[in-house]
Design goal:
By secondary structure, the protein is an alpha+beta fold. It has 2 helices and 5 strands. A 5-stranded mixed sheet has the order 3-1-2-4-5.
Amino acid sequence: MDNLTISGLAINTRIGVHTWEQRINQRLVLDISLTTDFGNCADDLSKTIDYDHLCQQVTGFVESQSFQLIETVAEKVAALIHETFQVTEVRVSVSKPDAIKQAKNVQVTVTRSGKA
């Protein structure tokens, strides 16, 4: 199997459990890894995953929603990718760099397997 990785996709959205957090946009950083088979792409974009389109889909989805937990963002993005693209496995990491004052980053990762 082959792998496509998108690192550091920055998206602003309403995220957090506190009322004040739901009033502002905060930055999330997503890392997405897809496992699929690129053996038959034959240098033809229509036979592979258009990663620009994937990033636009994910960005539009996350920006248009409001979330309390980064765990929910990771789960919903993984489900969106699984429903939209034919992949064997998807791994989504969501970071909220400004979540904890004393920490550089807070991150969760979900991995989902199986054909959509």
